[in-house]
C-alpha cells in the first residue's frame, strides 16, 4: 500500500546539512496499522510528512497504492493527496470554522455538491461521536473532541491511508485510550491503512500490527509488534520497551550477585492461547525441577495475550537443560539468561 | 451664551465634513484593494512560504519600505505628477485620493503580512495535506483565519487615513484639514479649528469602535 524506497532527506542548516532521514526503506501493507517509534529528533515527523510529500525527499521514491507520488506535481499531486488523510498532534483545525465546517472543508475543496457534503458530514459526526457539537468552534472543544474533528475531517474524502503525526501526544491517558480505540475501529470497519508515529511504546502495543524503530534517521529495528516488543534487539528499542510499566524491570534481577551456583535463570515467553494453558506447571511437574518466579508479566499486545516470566531453576546443568528442552517442546520461547 | 458659535459658517463645515468622508471612504477603499494583494504577495513570497520567491519579496519589501519611510506630506508633493496622470488634477477631493492611497497602501500591506504570519502554520499544512491549491489556501484558510487581525489592520489604516486627509488640506486638498488651516492658522478663528478637531476626533472614535466590535465578533480563539 505504501512503499518508501531509498528515502533521504537533507535539511540545510546554516553552513552544514542535517540528514533527517538516511536511505530509508519502508513498506506498509493494505489494512495494516503500522507504528513508527523514535526519540525526539529521530526524524519521525519528517518520515510521515514524506509519505504525503508535505516534505519532498532529497532522494528516493514514494509509492501509494502503486502510484509514484514523487513523480507527480501540482494538480495531480493535490488530487492524490485526497487519498491520504492526516491528523496532527495539535489538531490543526480551522479556528474560524465550526465543527461541521471543518469536517466539510476537504469536501468543499473538491467542490462536492452541497447535499452530498451535508450527508457526509452527518455520517462522519456520528462515526466519531460528536453529535450535538456541530455548530461549536474548536476553541469550545476539549482536546479529545478536537482530535475527533481532526479524524472526521481526515476521513471525509474516504482516503485509503490515514497518517497520524503524534495524534495522542497532547492528550491525557484516558482520552488517548478513547482516540486509539476509535482509530482501531476505523481501521477494522473501513479497512483504512494507518501509519502512526509516536514516542510512546504504550500506543504501539495497544493498536499496532507492525512497528519500526527510528533512530538518527534510520530504521534500526522493525517487525511484528509482538516480536519487537518481546525480543527487542537494538538498545533504543530496549529503552522504549522498558518505558511500559509492566515490562520486566531488568534491574531487579541483574543486580543480584548472590545467586547460588546451582541455579539457572531463564526468560520464558508465551503468546496467544498458550497464555491460558497450564503449560509451565505441567512441564515443571513432569521434569521435577523446582523453580522460583523472579519476575513476571501477563498482558496483551493489541488483542493478543502474552506472558513473559523470568524464572530461576534449581538443579544441575543437566536437569535444567532437560526442563528448558521440555518447555521448548511445548512451544514456549525460552531464553537462557546465564548458566551456573 | 453661545454667541461665539453664531459666527460659525455651519454649511461650510458640513460641506468640508462631507469632503473628508468622501476622501476617507475613497482612499480607504483603494488602499484595501491595493494593499491586500501586496500584503498577501509579501507573505507568500517570503522564504519558506508557499510561493517562495526571494527576489520578488526583496523588491516588494524595498518599495514598501521606501514609501513608508517618506513623510506623508513630502510624499504628497512628490507624487503630484502621478496624481495628475491618474485623476487629472492634484487639487480637491479627487486630487487627494491617489497620494493618500500611495501613502497608506504600503502601510496596510505590512499589516496584512503580519496578520497572515500569525496564522498557525499547522493549519496551512493540514489544508495542504487535504490537497488544497495555493489559491484555496489563501482564500479558504489564510484570509478567514487572519480575519480578526485583518479587521484590526483596516481599522488602524482608516484611523491613520483620517490624519492624512487632514494633512492633505495643506496642499489644497480640501476637507476638514483645509478648513482648520484656513480659519485657525491664517485667520486665527480658533472656534472653527476646535470644531474641526472635535469632528475628526468623533470620526476616529466611531471607526475604532466599529473595528473593535468586528474584531471581537470574529475572534474564535
Ligand atoms: N524544516 C527543517 N529545517 C531544518 N532541520 C529540520 C527541519 N525539520 C526537521 N529538521 C531536523 O530534522 C531532524 C528530524 O526532525 P523531526 O521533526 O522529523 O523529528 P521527530 O522525530 O519528529 O521529533 P519530535 O519527536 O521532537 O517531533 C531534527 O534534527 C530536526 O532538527
Ligand atoms: Mg515530530
UniProtKB/TrEMBL annotation, chain A:
UniProt keywords (A-Z) are: Amino-acid transport, ATP-binding, Cell membrane, Membrane, Nucleotide-binding, Translocase, Transport
Q: Which organism is it from?
A: Cohnella kolymensis
The terms under GO molecular function for this entry are: ATP binding
Its recorded name reads Methionine ABC transporter ATP-binding protein
What phylogenetic lineage does the species belong to?
Answer: Bacteria, Bacillati, Bacillota, Bacilli, Bacillales
Annotated ranges, domain ABC transporter: 2-241
Q: What superkingdom does the record give?
A: Bacteria
Query: Which is a Pfam family this sequence falls into?
Result: NIL
Automatic annotation (TrEMBL), chain B:
Keywords, comma-separated and alphabetical: Cell membrane, Membrane, Transmembrane, Transmembrane helix, Transport
- Family recorded in the similarity comment: Belongs to the binding-protein-dependent transport system permease family.
From what superkingdom does this record's organism come? Answer: Bacteria
Q: What is this protein called?
A: Metal ABC transporter permease
Q: Where in the cell is it found?
A: Cell membrane
Indicate how the chain sits in the lipid bilayer.
Multi-pass membrane protein
Source organism: Cohnella kolymensis
Q: Which Pfam families match?
A: BPD_transp_1 (PF00528)
Q: Which CDD domains match?
A: TM_PBP2
Residues annotated as domain ABC transmembrane type-1: 17-211
